[in-house]
């Protein structure tokens, strides 16, 4: 029988154990002197290190795993059963042969095994498991751990409808009691606010009508008589449109009157034609005639207002859209000969 001398790392006590005993308990032993649990393989010593006076061999303490207390299942929702663990003592001869890696030595008298003492030592797998370890019948063979899948729940591959019924708590409706006096006090304020809003709207409309009266009268011609009556009371006027670009000057000419000479002045006749190309009536423009000599130098500039080239009957009427007016106006100039002239129009 192969023996191995091991030494307790705490009290330095040395004792001999057999290889079969170490294989049965995975090398875990309890010191018979100080009850320290240690790994016999790691603390093995040679025979030469033993003391000359050997004390009587004390029966080694063999570790037997005891079932750990059953943990209380947690009350978390959706928790399922965890797989249980069971320890079986059935070990094959091939495993025991593979685990024996020590050199065989001549063994002395076999050490009588004493009664097995239950300890609180647990294997690493048992400590990591949430289920208790169920020990099989005590034997001298290795310990195996089997996973039992009897309590594992079946997987759910289809979504199940939620059968929980929602709970609704009906609260009594709050009824706010209105004071009758407050309702009567605020009853007259609403018509007052409505009246105030309408007054503001009318005032805003009148202001816009006053500012844009000319544009409204020129765009919508039938509103001009009404607006003129309103302006008579307010002392305002409604002018016609003033688009000088829409007035064209056609057939302009300047002729000198023969046999007319008075105090060193020359008499000329200015003749031209005006046309309103706008679709609305306009005011009469002011004309500016510039006279030049042979070198294109300005000799004189003559402004001609509408009162000068219009007849008294035409002064009260606007320049109607599409209308044409022929102007023939005499002009007196100083003793200078005129070679050319230009006519311009503008609104003052």
From TrEMBL:
InterPro entries: DUF3426, Znf/thioredoxin_put. The keyword 4Fe-4S does not apply. Residues 6-38 form the Zinc finger/thioredoxin putative domain. Keywords: Membrane, Transmembrane, Transmembrane helix. Residues 57-141 are annotated as: Disordered. Pfam families: DUF3426, Zn_ribbon_4. Residues 128-138 have a biased composition (Polar residues). Residues 75-105 have a biased composition (Low complexity). It comes from the Bacteria. The chain crosses the membrane at residues 192-212. NCBIfam families: MJ0042_CXXC. This is Zinc finger/thioredoxin putative domain-containing protein.
């Amino acid at each position: 029988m192969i023996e191995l001398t091991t030494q307790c790392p705490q009290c330095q006590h040395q004792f001999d154990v057999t290889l079969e005993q170490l294989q049965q308990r995975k090398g875990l032993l309890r010191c018979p002197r100080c009850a320290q649990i240690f790994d016999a393989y790691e603390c093995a010593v040679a025979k030469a290190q033993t003391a000359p006076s050997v004390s009587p061999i004390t029966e080694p303490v063999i570790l037997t795993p005891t079932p750990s207390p059953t943990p209380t299942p947690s009350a978390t929702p959706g928790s399922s059963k965890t797989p249980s663990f069971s320890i079986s003592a059935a070990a094959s001869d091939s495993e025991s042969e593979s685990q024996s890696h020590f050199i065989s030595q001549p063994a002395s008298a076999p050490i009588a095994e004493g009664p097995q003492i239950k300890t609180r030592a647990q294997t690493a797998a048992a400590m990591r498991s949430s289920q208790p370890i169920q020990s099989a019948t005590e034997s001298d063979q290795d310990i195996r751990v089997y996973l039992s899948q009897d309590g594992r729940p079946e997987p759910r591959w289809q979504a199940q409808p939620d059968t929980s019924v929602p709970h609704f708590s009906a609260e009594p409706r709050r009824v706010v009691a209105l004071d009758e006096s407050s309702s009567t006090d605020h009853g007259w304020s609403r018509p007052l606010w409505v009246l105030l809003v309408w007054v503001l709207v009318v005032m805003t409309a009148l202001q816009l009508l006053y500012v844009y009266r000319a544009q409204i009268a020129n765009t919508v011609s039938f509103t001009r008589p009404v607006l003129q009556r309103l302006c008579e009371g307010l002392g305002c006027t409604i002018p016609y449109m003033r688009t000088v670009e829409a007035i064209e000057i056609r057939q302009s000419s300047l002729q000198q009157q023969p046999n007319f000479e008075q105090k060193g002045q020359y008499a000329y006749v200015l003749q031209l034609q005006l046309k309103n190309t706008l679709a609305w009536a306009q005011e009469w423009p002011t004309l500016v005639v510039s006279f030049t000599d042979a070198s294109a130098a300005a000799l004189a500039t003559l402004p001609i207002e509408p009162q000068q080239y219009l007849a008294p009957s035409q002064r009260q009427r606007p320049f109607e859209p599409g209308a044409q007016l022929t102007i023939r106006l005499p002009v007196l100039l100083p003793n200078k000969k005129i070679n050319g002239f230009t006519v311009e129009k503008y609104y003052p």
